Amino acid sequence: MAKRGGYGFGIVGCGMVADFHAKAITAMKGGHLACVFSRSQKNAQRVAQASGCAAYTDYAKFLAHPGLDIVAIATPSGAHLEPVQKAARAGKHIVCEKPLEITLERIDKMIQVCKQHKVMLAGIFQRRFYEATRVFKKAVQAGRLGKITMADAYIKWYRTQEYYDSGYWRGTWKLDGGGAMMNQSIHTIDLLYYLAGDVKWVCAFADRAIHKRIEAEDNAVAILKFKNGALGVIQGSTSCYSPGGHPAEVHMCGSQGSIFMRDDRFSVWEFKKGRSNDKKIMQKLGAKTGGAGAGAADPAAISFVEHQKNFENVVRALKTGTPPLIDGPEGRKSVEIILAIYRSALSGGKPVPLPLKRTPIRKPFR
Length: 366
Hints:
By secondary structure, the chain is α/β, with parallel strands linked by helices.
């Protein structure tokens, strides 16, 4: 039975992601799972029975559930806007899975409707809630790296053909919004932006290397120039086989130090000017040798704990009247970077400046 008290959450969508949401909300402080919605009665009942909450197949009735305060959107990526609009008009706060949506125009409509109806729009990027991310961010803000010279993200993951065949929307432009970059790599791209700052332009190449029956890329490389002058690389793939999967990595180097983060731990923590707690940080958060990456080969093989922290951050923001760590404009940033990568890749690698004025026309990769 879900814990009662605090804000009442409702989940829209009853797939694998909704299962993570249900576990996180059930375990969180300051909220409880009140109800779930799915067009499939079987799926709605499955999640509801496991969580001890109400199940709906009628969205209007779901939104009218007594005690529903916050709606968590866990539908396919290109099907976020419409349920968000209806929830906002019903006066419900919203937590939306990544990406917020698959075009800038649809994201802007989400931000606008939530602002109009004075409800919160928050995104989900659970990797921001790693303790290592907090320590990394603090070091960057303190200037420990000096002048930032390079900032990179590496997501060399693997997905089977069966993974793409299991959902009609996977790897499509219309509902997935892209491939390895938009679906899998977006978490680490968000971290790269969060830690290194805004991107000035990108130049990219992408292709469909090994998978069949998908429109989008399963392999991509981008070169970035940041507004702070740093250069960087993003490698995002679902075509890099590994039995357990490679960890996602963020590397940042500067004139005074270097930090390499592998998932939620550090493989490099080096500075010209050491501090007394550096050794303790590596003792606690130093990367272990070997080990599979979180969700790198199996999307179900991740912990819900960071999702829980993400939801708890939303509750704290509502209680204090402050923005959540990932609000609408913040969640929009990673999508804009990825769309710029797609525009460059589909043009044969031409440089693309940011910000983008509109979503680029997309066509199948070969």
